[in-house]
Amino acid sequence: MAAIGPDRGKVRTLLLVRNAVSHDARVLRAARVAEKALGGKALVVGVATASAPAGESRVEGVRVLRLKTRGLLPGARLRRAVSGASFARQALALARRERPALVHANDWNTMWCAVAIKLTCGARVVYDSHELWADRNGRWEWRPWLLASEALFVRLADAVLTASPGYADALAHRYRVARPTVVRNIPDIPSKAASGPEQPPCVVYVGGLMPGRGLEQTIDALALTEAIRLRMVGPGSAGYRASLVARAQAAGVMDRVALEPPVPPAYVPALLGSAMAGLCLIQPVCRSYELTLPNKLFEYAAAGVPVLASDLPVIAAVVRGNGLGEVVPPNDPPGIAAALQRLREPRRWSDAARSSHTFAQANDWRGESEALAAIYTKALGG
After folding, report:
1. Cα 325 from Cα 123, distance rounded (Å)
2. What is the pTM of this model?
3. Looking at the chain, which terminus has fewer C-beta neighbours within 10 angstroms, N or C?
4. Which domains does the chain have, with CATH numbers?
């Protein structure tokens, strides 16, 4: 296991997450809140990747320790299982040395480790369900096992929180527990009013490039419009990126489509500032997507740009209720194209952009951070 570096000190809060952390704004924000609310040091424990090597570093001022967990093993499921066991073993060893007061477990796949730390080290545990793990896109584990485990997790945890009111309702109903606290994925950046879309107009998607995000449908919609361009910014597999290129070529719009690498969360507002709209066209491919309230919606609002969103329960309620932009059936390229054309109208664009800015000013990270700080304090018996 990688050693903790020279600024080693008492780790009061240990945050566990099974990704490289670099682009996980929710986890980075939580670490900063923990240090401010609880004192002591916060340490995020993530996993090493090809672009994020093992060892300790700082990401946006947050202390991060990435563990090497992957080996050359046959079969994706076996690799995932071995990686999970390796992560848990190393994180538990770290916790035994550091004796944190609080463990913030991000998602189901860190909770077994968090439970082990609770039982062996006496730490309090916060379970943060970023999505409905048993009903997520691409789930490979046996669903009854996930449900049974999570029923245990929500009872063993000293506090439970989640990112969407839809998830909170589902978890409370599913496990017959008190409704988890909702801490929305709102960026901790000041909101700004957009100056106006660049010409020719460009719509932007920021987030993971993967199926179920409406990217294919947007490409198809471009063929039904003129001049509108599409930028897709985020991490994604080489195979999936190639499939998007092939789709754009088949639709005859490759000259209006750009695929770009991910950027740090702090760079997102500048990237969005001149967009005609931000895309939040989540597809209802799983229950977790149907009830999501993604951070990209709040990022678009913070940049003061209109939102083009799927007609799904939670997302649509926010967009319609606050006049943030257009809501369309998620799998309807003609409907998407028509909505894009409406947003090209100067008055419609300015009304939606103004509403986005107003919404972002009224829904900033300050309120969410206060709720998270209260969860931490309560979990520690304060």
Report:
1. 45
2. 0.91
3. C
4. 11-184+365-379 (3.40.50.2000), 202-362 (3.40.50.2000)
